[in-house]
Design goal:
- The complex is a heterotrimer of chains A (359), B (271) and C (262).
- Chain A is an alpha+beta fold and 359 residues long.
- Chain A is built from 9 helices and 20 strands.
- Chain A starts with a strand and ends in a 6-residue tail after the last strand.
- By secondary structure, chain B is mainly α.
- In chain B, α3 (46-79) packs across α9.
- The longest helix of chain B has 34 residues, at 46-79.
- Helix content of chain C is 78%, strand content 0%.
- Chain C contains 11 helices and no strands.
- In chain C, α3 (58-86) packs across α6 (129-153).
- Chain C is mostly helical.
- Classes of the chains: A alpha+beta (359), B mainly alpha (271), C mainly alpha (262).
- The interface between A and C is medium-sized, with 24 and 17 residues.
Amino acid sequence: MSLRLVEVSKDFGSFRLAPLNLTIERGEFFCLLGPSGCGKTTVLRLIGGFEPPSSGQIWLGDRNMTHFPPNERNVHTVFQRYALFPHLNVFENVAFSLRLKGTSKTSIEEKVRDILRLVEIETLADRKTTQLSGGQAQRVALARALVDHPEVLLLDEPLSALDPALRLKMREELKTLCRKVGSTFLMVTHDQEEALQLSDRIAVLRNGNCLQVGPPKMIYEDPVDTFVAGFIGPVNEIHGELAEDLGEQFTLQCTLGTFKVKKNGTPLPKQISLVLRPEKMRILRQKTAAENLVEGQVLDICYLGSRTEYNVRLPGTQFKVFEPELERMKKKSLNAGDRIFLTWKTEDAIVLRRVESGT
Amino acid sequence: MFITWLTLLTLLPFLMILGMSFMKKTTGGWIALEPTVGNYARCFSWLYAKVFWKTIVLAGLATLSCLLVGFPVAYYLAKAQGTQRQVGLILLFIPFWTNFILRIYGIISLFGNHGLLNQTLLSFGLLDNPLQILYTRFGVYLGLLYNYLPFLVVPIFSSLEKLDFRLREAAQDLGANRVQTFWKIVVPNIKGGVFVGSLFVFIPMVGEYVIPDLLGGAKEAFLGNVMVSQFFVMQDWPFGSAIAGLLSVLLLVALWLHHRWGFVRPVGGIP
Amino acid sequence: MSPQKNLFVTVFFYAVIGFLYLPLLYLILQAFLVNPNDLGSGFTLQWLNRVIKSGTLWEPLMNSLKIAVASASLSTVLGTLGAVGLTPFISVLPVSLQTLIMLPILLPEVITGLSLLLFFLLCRVELGATTVIIAHASFSASFVYFIMLEQLKKLDPHMEEAAQDLGAKPSETFWRVTLPNILPGVLGGWMLAFTISFDDFLISFFTSGAGVTTLPLKIYSLMRMGISPELNGLSFFLICISTFLVMALLFKEQSRRWVIKG
């Protein structure tokens, strides 16, 4: 049963969520990614039933649940601060939804124990919710939401309240949980690393608009504009004008020089942006013949073990370049102030129409 | 939504009540049904204006005294920690939990002509005649102070508590002496709470009935007493209602003032 | 803080406390004196005896208790429902409505008492215990409302959403989730309403009519007749009960704190 949003929009007066169309397949791990205020939590709340949409419909399978109250949707939410019931212990918290349905005592016992085992907190069943650590509370929230096998699980920045080490561990566990349980997981986050690691597909939102939907690789390598490109990972940007048409390529004219730009099949305006990922650029200690070459000066160096990050000053701008350790150790070491050359393969550069920056 | 309904049901009688009293006063009431403003005019006549003035002045004095006495009390509580503070608070509030009338009775016993105070003073030969405290303005003042003191201590206390004492240290670190610290740091930050607290003490004081009645006698009537006598003794309900209306207006004005000025929350450093 | 200042403040505090307790302590003392006005008249229990034996004080006491319980329950229900119902809208509540709810607290008791009297007369309702209960309830409901408002603020706002999310209808959410969590506040509110009602004089004075006497009213009428030893005896009992209740409450608070610490 897939979750479908059809032209769903929400108007808060001060904030508007533009009409959104989304189809999420059963069992998918889907992320809503974007900066704060982009509307991702709004989408979550619309699906959960806590706000009515201003327009559009929400379908779960063949049921139109647009106007269903939260308790009639087969959708459960894990809240950012977990919202556990303080007057009930762990077991009762998890059993809550089952008790409402009038499930038999033995059945409740079995199902609750099962889910507690799945999230590895079996021993905490009798604890009071006020005596749990952050990670434990989160597992209880997950158990509570999953115990009756909802179609869709909504997660509102579930990992943001955890410390970094726990966060990394929980990421993996969430992915495994999704596969084991088989429910659709829809997660809201502003952490692009999280989204990249966990999702089957990502939707990038900004200012109430959905910019792009696709698998992580696509978002990373084929972003639809410079905002998405910059949000999903570090970027270097060159802005310029398309000059000559060379058949399969264009030449780009800009302050840094003239470069080759690959045609990507879409019609491009004259003013374009070229997005270069730091890891796709190479530092040359000497000038060589290359398609795309820029001279610069090393500003500072950051050795991170598996790779080294360089800030390179170029005429009018600054670039970030990553050099993997395997390459760096074969070459001459660099120091701040050294003059070097940067190059990249034409097909590694992302060509985009120019978009105004700023959230 | 049906919940709001029920609240309305409590408020509705109330609204009606208020409306009722307003209606009553402009129409003739028992006498005739002509709406008149004459009642209100009477309120401003010399006789009643005097009572009005006296009520306000005495209530004001009592409020001020509560402030002066209450401040060190609140200060002690704010400075005290843990059990000491708890004990202090408990002690302060036990009298509050005893019956109001009883407390007045206690004051009468103590300060009456045959009361303990006079007995002691007489027996020690410090006085020839008993000191007349009851049935005087001072008696009423004393009653007000006694009853309302804890009420003013609480807001001062909570303002002081919220005041970050580190602000004082910061001021002293920058060179202010004790007095300066007090005026420039402590006072501005607790101003809000103090003002609100005073208002919440002053207003009920103005509307007091029992204390002036029991401790003041016929001479020292407050507005409240005059109002009641209009209702029950003079049978002039409209006029009584007019006084009530006037009093309500006064209080609403005071409230509005509070709304404009009073919500000064103690903020770290910048009032 | 300088030690002298410290000392001054401490001494001042206890002096004020002394001042507050003096009348009450004197009353207690008087209860045991043969002649209440004469300190030297000797120690006796006769007045206390009289109070217990005499029936005149039992009836008002019972009345006060019954009325207090009834009005406390009524006003707690009203105030709680009001708070629960209005919390979601609390930020957009118009000032007029807010003032309305605060009205019973702000208006002097004389005015509320008189207006309620007027109201009852106009509705041709007979004055009696019921009118007193209604009057007390309307008055204390506002207090309960504000207490409950504070209590509700402390609740996790997402808790009710979580309950609904997991399948609870609005009524189920209230009974299974909201109520258990605000119960301590509800009880506190009930106790406050009870105290307000039991202690109340002025409003009862206006709305009770000839038939019903509450304890404060009885005390008042006795007082008008002058100092009476029986009154002193009664004072003794009442003061003891109040003190005992306060101690009991605080003891409960304390022991709860010790349990949490331990």
